[in-house]
Amino acid sequence: MINLIYKDGRGHKMARPVTSREEYVALRNAPENAKCFYDARGGQQAQKMRQLQFNYNDLLPDGVLKGCCHPASTFAHDIDCQSLEEQAAIKQRILEKKDEIGLLELSGSANCGLHAVCRREKGKTILESQVRVSMITQTEMDTNTHDQARVMFTGPATDDNLFYLDDAIFEEKMSVEESAAEFEVLKEREKKGQEQVPKEAKKAIKHYRPWEGTPPVIPNTPVSSRPSEASGEISGDSCVPSVASGKAEYSTTLGMTKGANERTRFIFRECMKEEGVTDADLVDQGGRHNSVKMILSSCTQLLSKEETLGMLKELMPNNWQDENIQNLVNDFYTDYYNPSQRLTLFQKRVFRESRRLGGDTSQQDKSEFSVQNQSELSKLFASKMPPEIPKVLPKLVKAVTQHTPQRYKATVAQAMFPPLSTYSRKLSFMYIDNQERDLRSCCLIIAGTGTGKDSCTKQPLQHIIADMVERDKENRDRLKKFNDEYNNKANNKQKPQRPDDLIIQTLKYDITKAASRAAYGGCPGCTALHPTERVGAVG
């Protein structure tokens, strides 16, 4: 599946499918695209960003790149090469294994690397597929290039640059409905950690060799001066300048970071919301600089420079070390940070709320056990899903939560005991003064009029007895019908027998004789409710 990426009038990335070899080749061979490719190969890196962009990972049925959720049956794989000679050697190795890896396209990139498009095995994530290709061909991979929205900057489709193209790439095997279902399966695999990849593949490693079994050593010095091929985004390891370059301040700040914790995550996320910045904006090639600038305008008074760098490292691991990002942070904290500056209403609120979340989880005085537990709690509170409820439940908890949606069962189960304890019946004990006392939680709720003081006890109970009330509504109709039939029979006729299953457990608020006759037609020979009607309300 091939989608051409373009920008609409508002600057949003849109997509349209390319369905034939002729159209695909013509787009890539456009004079302007070819010029940008060869200019970039000659050293003009800015020209690389002007090349055509294609997405091979998603169907993009709605034509919008952001938030894509329809994985294609193909995936893109980026391979870095040091030179054209190395490119030729790796190209030959891949072509020899093309059937084994399901190769559909292989072409060169502006920085002498290779772009491969392969068939994705159904039920396997892009990361799993990339690791498989890397192990079969024994080529290095970047572990950060497996998102579905990833694009490839693509050069001309000439014989010396487009090495292989199978027409099957234009035929998508999955329907939109099947793809949507596949997305849920893949998301569940990632969430539950079911991806069959080495644990190192889940870390941020630019030059990863899965066939070696251990991750390569990541030195402090640059591994490569080339930017990442597929996305055109410069990785952190490839842009750290030396002190001799005149950027001494920038080089020294790379080690000045603090690990993100619950408090710093909360503050940073709130600042992102305030400025309307999303996670995708922080990794977008054209917008991440301004996005960071917007966040800094809110968070510089709430976070230290080290804490801010720690958050950027977590949210944009490939780009937080970019020179322009580091200089931006330095400039903000040098020119705009003022401890005596008055906080805005937004900053005051965020500061107050952040104080309740605790501090840095990496403090030396905390034991390893407490740090680990705090980390797990942070993951729990950061999760969009509530905790799961056990499969086997006590009868009472099961009865209370039987109509509660699965995702809310745990919350309802833990909130049910206070209201139940205030309404307990026939649970008593002999107190020290020889008086019988009810075993219940007696409390006094003080609040303003009309604030819903009884909602914490009445509403849960209403949900608990909902089934009982529904059944009693039907039985009241049956009781009225029985009473009418009973009263209409002459005394010399055989009276009908009351059904054995006609039971009413909840009483109405108004149980006067007049209300009873109006509701049930009265009971034969008296003006009160039928004796079997007087079943105590369940507390």
Fold topology:
Elements: E1 3-7, E2 13-17, H1 21-28, H2 31-41, H3 45-48, E3 52-55, E4 74-79, H4 84-96, H5 98-101, E5 103-108, E6 114-119, H6 126-137, E7 152-154, E8 162-165, H7 176-191, H8 248-252, H9 262-275, H10 279-283, H11 288-299, H12 305-315, H13 323-335, H14 345-355, H15 368-382, H16 395-400, H17 409-415, H18 417-422, E9 428-430, E10 436-438, H19 455-464, H20 466-488, H21 513-520
Antiparallel strand pairs: 1-2, 1-3, 3-7, 4-6, 5-6, 5-8, 9-10
Helix pairs in contact: 9-11, 9-14, 11-13
> Terminal Cα separation, in Å?
62 Å
Q: Write out the strand line-up for the largest beta sheet, numbering strands in chain order.
A: 2-1-3-7
Q: What would you call the structural class?
A: alpha+beta
- Main sheet specs: 4 strands, antiparallel
* Cα radius of gyration in angstroms: 34 Å
Spans with pLDDT under 50 lasting ≥5 residues?
214-255, 359-374, 522-539
Strand content: 5-15%
